[in-house]
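Before the break, one more example. Copy the sequence into your notebook; we will annotate it together after we see the structure.
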Amino acid sequence: MANRLSRITTRTGDDGTTGLGDGSRVPKNSPRIDALGEVDELNSLLGLLLTETMPDDVRQLLETVQHDLFDLGGEVCIPGYTLLKTEQVERLDAALAHYNAELPSLKEFILPGGGRTAALAHLARTVARRAERGVIGLEAINPPVLQYLNRLSDLLFVLGRYLNRIDGKGDVQWNHERRKTT
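Here is what the structure looks like once it is written out:
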């Protein structure tokens, strides 16, 4: 692979614009750059999640997701360009079915928490939802991009539950009958 960046500091953004992958320049606060930043934040949060102890199969899945998110970011960065395929969405569907099959049915809403690894998965889920909201309004977005982010947030919810279960923590259930005492 050739060097893609010879300098990190280019000073071309000093005027408040940034370059897209097609060479065009847009304001740094444009919806496309906001969405790109949200996808990047999600990928970074998955990197943090991957520093935790977890089963090898979950680790491999999340590492693959990180690469997919880089492809997804490429699509956001280059309007009209497609990298993400339906096969990548289908892989998330298969993972969702696999991990969800090992969990008890939900009888109550659950709260993010339990163990640290699961809590990070739940946090990543919320960032995935935000990234999805950011990408929805963009022009020239390949349909698998939105499908991928939607499935990924579902998968991260399931993985949060799964990681709590294998850590012996279980779900943190919302107590709808709690009473506030004063």
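The longest strand covers residues 17-19. The longest helix spans residues 143-166. Try to locate both features in your own notes.
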